[in-house]
Specification:
heterodimer; A: alpha+beta; Jelly Rolls; Phage tail protein beta-alpha-beta fold; 3 domains; 15-stranded mixed β-sheet; three-stranded mixed β-sheet; 18 strands; B: mainly alpha; Rna Polymerase Sigma Factor, Chain: A; Arc Repressor Mutant, subunit A
Chain lengths: 339, 201
């Protein structure tokens, strides 16, 4: 029977079977992809800017000879200083009602939309925005207004922003969040800035930030610290928990994490990072076991808390979030294993 | 010559943001999978290697001549980064020893073996299926992305020719032609990676 079939059709069937059996190609995790994207995009922008400078310098030299070469080099030097030193922003995801305006023109809102300097992003009471600026990730909360500035600077005039940054690349300027009450620059960290008509509050979840208020006075904040700058210039410093209600809004729009085919450890690391918790793997062998447990399916559209419940239900591990600040994972006890 | 790839590189060099989005969306996942298979499925190591390779690649775009496909060119850069990574790893002998000891530890082994195998088969069968899947994925990654895409739409998502045409914004005739070329390319690539696919005519 089979031998009477068209060999070409048989070939098609074989390709169909191979591709279907192999299943979809595994996608890299979204946070990981975002990290690489921002770093590569920054390198690409720097490289193209340098190529332009080299082309400009060659033209000047050819046109004006040796004497003009000196001027050309000066020109290059001046232009190098004038170049914007960091990437513009890019929209990663949007939820709820969000308006994006660039120089009086309303822009299309879609993932991947480029937001040049001068763009203002505004959310309503149900709006959330996830975006990248240079090598940094930012989430804008409800009722917020943010203007993208040049050189890795943003200006928050209302609402709240959550920033997740890495160490600034060599030669790249750090991200600076400006507000009417002062400016916040990071030193590799996760933090949020909240602004209303009376004050600005800066809370550091991990890492360090530097806050300079309108009078020029500087505050250096590290993990678990918060400073509030009031309209009159008064400054109040206090401790802040890296987890809990104050950070809950951040979970509304998180970078997507594809889990299909990934180890459980990758999901647990992601959850702990998103929630500001410390991951504690209890008992011998638990660390290795979570690394060797592969997940399947998807958590798209779930908040981190919903995802934790859904994912852990498919594994044999027990988890505990009752210890403040910790996510504890353990192997099941022999009695519960048998039941 | 790979004209499409040269055009993309040319657009990248003229600072076209849409070209960068296209470049990254197309090549990052393929290079990531290419690397992941070579670093024992360690996503952090794969991320570092691919980031270094892509960074190096975008800084040296002017050296791309179009003699090989852009993917092949990027794979060459990635292989060099992989080689550096493996050299560094070899230098970290204590780390390697510790890993070996952990794997040899009877308690750790018992825990690993107690994790239930996939319900669909015995360990050998699972390993064979995983190996086959990895080879098919590698073959798809080596194809031009629009070939891989049309094969997946047809054979993985099981879409009709009309639905694929709608999805890709082209005519049904164009889809048929594209699919025929994609199948042939898959056979060509698969003949080295997947002997069973290469034999199908």
């Amino acid at each position: 029977m089979t031998s009477e079939r068209d060999p070409r059709t048989q070939g098609h069937d074989q390709i169909a079977r191979l591709i279907a059996e192999a299943g979809p190609r595994p996608a890299p995790a979204a946070p990981l992809e975002q990290q690489v994207r921002t770093a590569v995009e920054q390198a690409w922008q720097q490289a193209t800017a340098q190529r332009r400078l080299r082309r400009g310098a060659r033209w000047v030299a050819a046109a004006a000879g040796l004497a003009a070469l000196t001027a050309g080099l000066l020109w290059v030097s001046l232009h190098r200083r004038a170049l914007p030193r960091a990437a513009d922003a890019t929209l990663v995801a949007v939820r709820g009602d969000v308006t994006v305006r660039a120089r009086h023109e309303q822009r299309l809102i879609a993932a991947g939309t480029h937001l040049p300097a001068g763009t203002t992003v505004q959310t309503t009471s149900n709006g959330f925005v996830l975006m990248s600026v240079a090598a940094d990730s930012m989430r804008l909360g409800p009722d917020s207004r943010l203007r993208i500035g040049p050189g890795g600077q943003v200006r928050l005039t209302a609402g709240r922003i959550y920033v997740e940054t890495s160490e600034p690349a060599r030669g790249a300027p750090p991200l600076i969040v400006k507000t009417p009450f002062g400016r916040v620059s990071h030193l590799g960290t996760q933090f949020q800035v909240q602004v209303n008509s009376a004050s600005m509050a800066v809370s550091v979840r991990s890492g360090q930030v530097r806050v300079r208020d309108a009078s020029g006075q500087e505050q250096h904040l590290t993990t678990g610290q918060e400073v509030e700058v009031l309209r009159g210039g008064q400054v109040q410093r206090r401790a802040v928990s890296p987890y809990g209600a104050q950070w809950a809004w951040v979970d509304a729009l998180v970078p997507d994490l594809p889990i299909d085919g990934r180890p459980l450890s990758a999901f647990l690391d992601w959850y702990a990072h998103e929630m500001g918790l410390r991951l504690v793997l209890v008992g011998p062998g638990t660390a290795m076991a979570v690394r060797h447990t592969r997940l399947s399916g998807s958590i798209a559209g779930l908040t981190p808390s919903q995802a934790l419940v859904a994912v852990m239900a498919t594994t044999r591990f027990e988890y505990d979030t009752t210890v403040p600040g910790e996510l504890r994972i353990r192997m099941p006890s022999p009695t519960s294993r048998g039941s | 010559m790979h004209e499409e790839d040269r055009k993309l590189v040319s657009r990248l060099m003229s600072r076209d943001t849409a070209a960068f989005n296209e470049f990254f969306a197309d090549y990052f996942p393929r290079l990531f999978r290419f690397t992941l298979r070579r670093v024992n499925d360690d996503p952090e190591a794969a991320r570092d290697i691919v980031q270094a390779a892509l960074t190096r690649g975008v800084r040296r775009l002017e050296t791309y001549r179009g003699e090989a496909s852009l993917f092949t060119w990027l794979c060459q850069i990635t292989r060099r980064e992989l080689s550096d990574h493996l050299s560094r790893l070899r230098r970290e002998q204590t780390y390697v020893h510790r890993l070996v000891e952990l794997e040899d530890d009877p308690h750790s082994r018992a825990i690993l073996e107690s994790i239930p195998a996939d319900a669909s088969g015995e360990p050998d069968a699972v390993a064979h299926r995983d190996d086959l899947a990895a080879r098919v994925h590698a073959a798809l990654d080596y194809l031009p992305s629009h070939y891989a895409r049309v094969l997946e739409l047809k054979y993985l998502e099981d879409l009709s020719m009309e639905a694929i045409a709608t999805r890709l914004g082209v005519s049904v005739i164009a889809v048929q032609s594209l699919l025929a070329r994609a199948r042939q390319a898959f056979r060509d690539v698969g003949s080295t990676l997947l002997p069973s696919a290469g034999g199908a005519q």
